[in-house]
């Protein structure tokens, strides 16, 4: 477990914060740098372990402002533990042209680490502008929409797909 955060992540965190309307406070820079340097999503405890000198309340507040600013996202786990990763997840709910930038997550069932899977939306969930669904080329979104219609009937629309793949991470699979 490393004690310090590499300086280039601090610089990156600071420059990302400067592109938003939230102030680049010391705490926010350190928390964001910790998330940026993490290979997998961090729980509060993981962040606290990295930033041992930071008090709990400051850490929670910094995380909230980073999430609000879209620099980090929160992943709800089925173990009732929230984990955080740098980068935005989603989706503006309720807007007319809601951008569907969603990504999937991989959860290791042994060590409980959660990894973000990038670009899954473009590859699998992209909606084809045309409706000619060829079974072999249909995206995951189209296939699921078909299942939805045939199971629940007409009129149901899917707005988002929450995708979590469970299995063993590389470290756990190797042992
Ligand atoms: Zn694992
Ligand atoms: Zn994620």
Automatic annotation (TrEMBL):
PANTHER family (UniProt xref) = FERRIC UPTAKE REGULATION PROTEIN, ZINC UPTAKE REGULATION PROTEIN
Superkingdom to which the source organism belongs: Bacteria
Q: Which UniProt keywords apply?
A: DNA-binding, Metal-binding, Repressor, Transcription, Transcription regulation, Zinc
Q: Which organism is it from?
A: Herminiimonas fonticola
Supply the source organism's classification. Answer: Bacteria, Pseudomonadati, Pseudomonadota, Betaproteobacteria, Burkholderiales
* Protein's name in the database: Fur family ferric uptake transcriptional regulator
Report the Pfam families cross-referenced here: FUR
> What is stated as this protein's family in its record?
Belongs to the Fur family.
Q: State a single Gene Ontology molecular function.
A: transcription cis-regulatory region binding
């Amino acid at each position: 477990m490393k004690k310090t955060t590499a300086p280039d992540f601090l610089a990156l965190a600071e420059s990302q914060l400067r592109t938003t309307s939230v102030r680049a406070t010391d705490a926010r820079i350190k928390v964001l740098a910790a998330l940026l340097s993490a290979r997998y999503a961090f729980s509060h405890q993981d962040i606290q372990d990295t930033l041992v000198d930071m008090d709990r309340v400051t850490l929670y507040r910094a995380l909230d402002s980073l999430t609000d600013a879209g620099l980090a996202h929160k992943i709800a786990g089925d173990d009732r533990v929230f984990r955080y990763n740098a980068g935005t997840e989603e989706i503006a709910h309720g807007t007319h042209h809601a951008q569907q930038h969603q990504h999937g997550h991989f959860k290791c069932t042994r060590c409980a680490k959660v990894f973000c899977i990038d670009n899954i939306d473009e590859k699998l969930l992209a909606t084809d502008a045309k409706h000619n669904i060829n079974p072999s080329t249909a995206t995951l979104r189209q296939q699921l929409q078909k299942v939805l219609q045939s199971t629940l009937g007409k009129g149901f629309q899917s707005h988002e797909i929450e995708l979590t793949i469970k299995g063993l991470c590389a470290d756990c699979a190797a042992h």
